[in-house]
Specification:
Blueprint (H helix, E strand, L loop, with lengths): L14 E10 L2 E11 L4 E5 L6 H8 L7 E6 L2 E3 L4 H6 L2 E4 L11 H5 L14 H15 L14 H14 L4 E5 L7 H16 L3 E5 L3 H7 L2 E6 L2 E7 L5 H9 L17 E10 L3 E9 L3 E6 L5 H9 L6 E6 L2 E2 L5 H7 L1 E4 L3 H5 L6 H5 L4 H4 E2 L2 E2 L1 H14 L16 H13 L5 E5 L7 H16 L3 E5 L3 H7 L2 E6 L2 E7 L5 H9 L6
Parallel strand pairs: 3-8, 3-9, 6-7, 7-8, 13-20, 13-21, 16-19, 19-20
Antiparallel strand pairs: 1-2, 1-4, 4-5, 9-10, 11-12, 11-14, 14-15, 17-18, 21-22
Main location: membrane
Protein name: Ribose import ATP-binding protein RbsA
GO molecular function: ATP binding; ATP hydrolysis activity
C-alpha cells in the first residue's frame, strides 16, 4: 500500500524514545520501547488496547517518568517531570478524551496559563479571542471563542484540543485518537493541518485504530504489543494485514462475526418522535434478534434520538413503546425497568466514574438488587463484577483498581458489563468501538451479535461505515434530524449510505 509523500525528514530525530520502561506496581506497562520522531514526518504508533501506547503518550506529556531508558531532544537527553516541562521542550499532546474545563470559554481553555495581558497585567480578552479565532480559521471551524466549553459536542471538544496544541507552536505534536469523533470532512481538515505542520518541519506522532487513516497520513509506523516494541519501519510497501499480524501476534477472526437470526416480534417502537431544532418525526421499530444501525454524518441527530428514547434527553412529542407498553418521557428509570440499556458514546463522561473502582462501576446499574436492608453487600457486588468482566474478557490488575486506570477498550467492556448485568431486552450502543483496537473491536462485535442471536433487540449508532455494513440487519440513515433512508442489509453499501447521509441525487 502506498503512503503519502511528505517533506524530507530531518537527519537527526527531533525526539527519540530510547529503551524506556515503566511499571505500575507489578504490572509492566512499557518494557524496552524505542523509536525516533523525525521532523517533516507523521509517525504512527499502533497496538491493541493495553499495548502501552497511552503510557508512552503520558511519558512524552510529562505525566509519567520512565523507570529506565532515556528521552532525547536532538542529541540531548531530557527529563520531562511535568506537563509544563514537556511544553517547554516543544511537545504538545492531544489526548484521546477531551480534557476541557467546562466553565471556561473556548478561548480560555486554549490559552489557560498563557493568556495575553494588557499593560495593567489584566487578561486581554479581545486579543485572546482574536488569537483563538485565528486558530479556528486555520482549522476551518466556525466555533465562537467566547462561548463556554460546557455543552460542546465531542467533535467540537476535540477541535478545541487541536487548537490548544497548535497554539503552543510545538515542534512535536502527539495526536492520541484525535479523529475518533470527527466526521469525514473534519478528518480531512485535520490531516491537512497535520501535513502543513510536517511541511513546516514538525514531527507528528499519530495514534489511531483506523488503518485507512494511518496509511493516508503517516510515513513510518511503530508497532507495540503487550508493552513491548515489535517493530519500527516505513509504511511504504506495508499492508493492513502486515500491521494486524504484528499488533495481535495471532490470527484474527472475522472482524464482523454477524450471526444470521430470523427476527422475532417487535420489541421497540418509536413513533413520530420530535424535538424542536434537533430531530423531527422519527419513527422506526426494532425486532427481537435484530441489529438496526443508525448511520449519518456527525450532527445528524442520531445520539440525540436514542438519548430521548432512553429518557435522558427530553422530547416535544412522540411515543416510545417497549413490547407494546408506552414509556414515560424523560424517565431513564422507567426505560431501565422496561428493559432498555444505553451504552453512551462518551464512556468517560457518561458511562463511567473514573475514580471509582472497576467492580463498583460494573455494578452501578444493579446497586439496588445487590443491596440488603439498604446496604450494598460487598461480596455480592464483587461476584457480579467478576462474572461480567470475565465474560467480556476484561483485562485488569485488581478489580478494586480505579476504572480510569484501564485502557480505552477495557473501559468500554466495563460499560458494557454494567448494562448487560441488567439483562436488557433492548440494547442501545452508541459508537461501541470508538477508540478501541482491532482485536477488541472483534470481541465487542461478537458480544453484540451473540446478544442479538439470544433475542435482544439492538440499536447501534456508528460513524464507521464498515461496522454499520458488517453488523446491521437494517440501516436507518439520518440527515439533519430526520430519517433520510432505510436500507436493508442486502442492499446497504458505503455508496448508498453516504448518498443518503449527504442528500445527493444518487441516493434515489
Amino acid at each position: 500500500m502506498s503512503v503519502p509523500s511528505t517533506t524530507t525528514p530531518t537527519a537527526v530525530p527531533l525526539l527519540e524514545v530510547r529503551d524506556v520502561t515503566k511499571s505500575f506496581g507489578s504490572v509492566a506497562a512499557v518494557s524496552g520501547v524505542s523509536f525516533p520522531l523525525y521532523g517533516g514526518e507523521a509517525h504512527a504508533l499502533v497496538g491493541e488496547n493495553g499495548a502501552g501506547k497511552s503510557t508512552i503518550v503520558k511519558m512524552l506529556a510529562g505525566v509519567h517518568k520512565p523507570d529506565s531508558g532515556t528521552l532525547l531532544s536532538g542529541s540531548t537527553e531530557i527529563t520531562l517531570g511535568s506537563p509544563a516541562e514537556a511544553k517547554a521542550q516543544g511537545i504538545a499532546v492531544i489526548y484521546q478524551e477531551p480534557t476541557l474545563f467546562p466553565d471556561l470559554t473556548i478561548a480560555e481553555n486554549i490559552y489557560i496559563g498563557a493568556q495575553p495581558t494588557t499593560h495593567g497585567r489584566m487578561i486581554d480578552r479581545s486579543a485572546m479571542n482574536a488569537a483563538a479565532d485565528a486558530l479556528f480559521t486555520r482549522l476551518g471551524v466556525p466555533l465562537d471563542p467566547d462561548r463556554l466549553a460546557s455543552g460542546l459536542s465531542i467533535a467540537d471538544q476535540q477541535l478545541v484540543e487541536i487548537a490548544k496544541a497548535l497554539s503552543t507552536q510545538a515542534s512535536v505534536i502527539v495526536m492520541d485518537e484525535p479523529t475518533a469523533a470527527l466526521s469525514g470532512n473534519e478528518v480531512a481538515r485535520l490531516f491537512s493541518v497535520a501535513r502543513s505542520l510536517c511541511a513546516d518541519g514538525a514531527a507528528v506522532l499519530f495514534i489511531s485504530h483506523r488503518f485507512e487513516e494511518i496509511f493516508e497520513l503517516c510515513q513510518r509506523v511503530t508497532v507495540m504489543r503487550d508493552g513491548r516494541h515489535i517493530s519500527t519501519s516505513p509504511l511504504d510497501g506495508m499492508t493492513v494485514d502486515d500491521l494486524i499480524k504484528q499488533m495481535v501476534g495471532r490470527e484474527l477472526g472475522a472482524l464482523y462475526p454477524k450471526i444470521d437470526v430470523e427476527p422475532g416480534a417487535v420489541i421497540l417502537e418509536v413513533q413520530n418522535l420530535s424535538r424542536a431544532g434537533v430531530f423531527s418525526n422519527i419513527s422506526f421499530d426494532v425486532r427481537a434478534g435484530e441489529i438496526v444501525a443508525l448511520a449519518g454524518l456527525v450532527g445528524a441527530g442520531r445520539s440525540e434520538v436514542m438519548q430521548s428514547v432512553f429518557g435522558v434527553d427530553p422530547r416535544d412529542s412522540g411515543v416510545v413503546k417497549v413490547r407494546g407498553k408506552e414509556l414515560k418521557a424523560s424517565n431513564p428509570k422507567a426505560a431501565m425497568r422496561a428493559g432498555i440499556a444505553l451504552v453512551p458514546e462518551d464512556r468517560r463522561q457518561q458511562g463511567l466514574i473514573p475514580e471509582m473502582s472497576i467492580e463498583r462501576n460494573a455494578t452501578l446499574t444493579r446497586s439496588a438488587a445487590l443491596a440488603r436492608f439498604g446496604f450494598l453487600v460487598g461480596g455480592a457486588e464483587r461476584r457480579s463484577a467478576y462474572d461480567w468482566t470475565r465474560k467480556l474478557q476484561t483485562k485488569f490488575a485488581r478489580i478494586t483498581d480505579p476504572v480510569g486506570t484501564l485502557s480505552g477498550g477495557n473501559q468500554q467492556k466495563v460499560v458494557l458489563a454494567k448494562w448487560l448485568a441488567t439483562d436488557p431486552i433492548v440494547l442501545i450502543v452508541d459508537e461501541p468501538t470508538r477508540g478501541i483496537d482491532v482485536g477488541t473491536k472483534a470481541e465487542v462485535h461478537k458480544i453484540i451479535s451473540t446478544l442479538a442471536s439470544e433475542g435482544v433487540a439492538v440499536v447501534m449508532i456508528s460513524s464507521e461505515l464498515p461496522e454499520v455494513l458488517g453488523m446491521a440487519d437494517r440501516v436507518l440513515v439520518m440527515r439533519e434530524g430526520r430519517i433520510a433512508a432505510e436500507i436493508d442489509r442486502a442492499h446497504a453499501t458505503e455508496e448508498s449510505v453516504m448518498f443518503a447521509a449527504m442528500g445527493t441525487e444518487s441516493a434515489a
